[in-house]
UniProtKB/TrEMBL annotation:
Xref: CDD domains: RPE
Protein name: Ribulose-phosphate 3-epimerase
UniProt organism field: Lacticaseibacillus baoqingensis
Cofactor(s) needed: Zn(2+); Fe(2+); Co(2+); Mn(2+)
Protein's job: Catalyzes the reversible epimerization of D-ribulose 5-phosphate to D-xylulose 5-phosphate.
Catalytic activity annotation: D-ribulose 5-phosphate = D-xylulose 5-phosphate
Length: 215
């Protein structure tokens, strides 16, 4: 399984150091949580953060847009250097068009589902997606407990992907730690985001532990 540390829980005053530590520790992606204070009740950073990260790491930047108007932000984040743009199915009435815009911008396209959103909402989108992100907490904050029922949702999506002969990657985000990673690995997730677990300890050690428990 690929591991994607979320910089939401990094030390913002020492961000370059923290990014380099997780890169050297073998992280596969860098997850960047964009929150606008409307779609979720928290506020983080904008395209300038992605532009600042781009020259200091060779990790792919996995940009999770928790914003109320995702279409408006596709070009700014793609231009800033995002490798994947993940947008919430709940955030727009024009999700298909938004995915088309992401692909037209030349970056990978992912769609995110909140815990209460059924997989059926993705049905028409799956063939054009590179990634599906299943939220394993309600979005907005790091450090929340993993919702165990979401593991079954991951397993169901693995089955659907196989039935349809598709190859999008399945990602989980929220509450991933040494106790919960085995559950999502077993369910078939390809990518696990982890914020507080990675950065509230020595990141290299934490990533090594996650990798060990994901087997
Ligand atoms: C939550 C964010 C997550 C967050 C995960 O809304 O999307 O990416 O950083 O944090 P942890 O791993 O602490 O649950
Ligand atoms: Zn996220």
């Amino acid at each position: 399984m690929k591991l994607a540390p979320s910089i939401l829980s990094a030390d913002f005053a020492n961000l370059q150091r923290d990014v380099q530590v997780v890169e050297q520790a073998g992280a596969d992606l860098l997850h960047v949580d964009i929150m606008d204070g409307h779609f979720v009740p928290n506020l983080t950073f904008g395209p300038g953060m992605v532009a600042a990260l781009r020259p200091i790491t060779s990790l792919p930047l996995d940009v999770h847009l928790m914003v109320a108007d995702p279409q408006a932000w596709i070009t700014p984040f793609a231009t800033a250097g995002a490798d994947t743009l993940l947008i919430h199915v709940e955030a727009t009435a024009h999700i298909f068009h938004a995915v088309q815009l992401i692909k037209a911008a030349g970056v990978k396209a992912g769609v995110v589902v909140n815990p209460g959103t059924p997989l059926s909402q993705l049905e028409e989108l799956l063939p054009i997606l590179d990634q599906v992100l299943i939220m394993t907490v309600n979005p907005g904050f790091g450090g929340q407990p993993f919702l165990p029922a979401m593991a079954e949702k991951v397993a169901r999506l693995v089955t659907v992907r196989k039935q349809l002969g598709l190859h999008f990657e399945i990602e989980v985000d929220g509450g991933v730690n040494d106790h919960t990673i085995a559950t999502v690995a077993k369910a078939g997730a390809d990518i696990a985001v982890a914020g507080s677990y990675v950065f509230n300890g020595a990141p290299a050690h934490q990533l090594e532990t996650l990798r060990a428990f994901a087997k």
